[in-house]
Please model this.
Amino acid sequence: MIKDGRNIFPKTTISNNMRRVLFIGGAGFIGSNLITKLCKKHEIHVCEPAGAYVKRLDGLDVNVHQCSLKDIQAIGKIINDYHIDVVVHLVSTLIPGSSYEDYKNEYKNMIFPSIELMEICAEKGVKFIYFSSGGTIYGNRNDVLPFVEEDPMAPISYYGWSKQMMENSILFMHRTKRLDYLIVRPSNPYGHGQNLYGKQGLVAVAIGKILKGEPVEVWGDGSAVRDYIYIDDLGEVFRQLIEKDVKNTTLNIGSGRGYSVNDVLAFLKIASQKDFKIVYQNPRPVDVSNMVLDLSNLNQYVDAEFTPFMDGIKTFYEESVKENR
Model:
């Protein structure tokens, strides 16, 4: 049940293995699925601005607070009043194709307030978890080896640059203010709850086009390789990281396997049994050519089985068909 956080009295006791977790931007595709994995055992709070779409949280035991990331005083009060243990930062207004003007707005409205939030967390001893991007933070390189967390950050888009700025700010706060943190770099999550008619997420957008009977557009020749992770697997990995209190490190989260855009579309043709049209457009300079994540560090902390990509695509497509009848 979604509750208005303004009407919930702070709890004074909590079991040793339970966390009070505040999600900044938890009503989206990723956040709602993470919360689904956590809310039966942990006390969950979500900050979303007034008028935000929160339907994905229906049926979940969540305390919803109406405030945006810019409302730093309000967020600080929530952290204090509800004795928050962990803040999970999921907010971003950018996508890989975003412009410099978009980036300037992101810096003003998201990055700078986030740095203030880190200050509050450091002062109150609250762990700060940040969802970065395993798909853009590393940029391009000539070889096809999986990326490890120690590889240089060399993003080629404003979206990736914003992620790098956030990561550097977190590390600065850790050095100077002793902020406890966890930076996670997810690959390309897909699955139920994802927007089929948006501008981001190849699998979801392609399914949306198939359901509408429209051609699927591809930037480039379809050879670009990505690492995809089913959303339930991402949620399970995150649950383990929360409950094991993993901190002060940076971790890739993905499947550890790469598939080209053409592979993904071939899988979708099998799952949908539709020979949809594919339109190839000129490549974009902001798109990396090869992105597979090394999971060696992650495997030291979690024990998870990943959904085979074909199975995940089939499940996502079938669920989408049922929901759009």
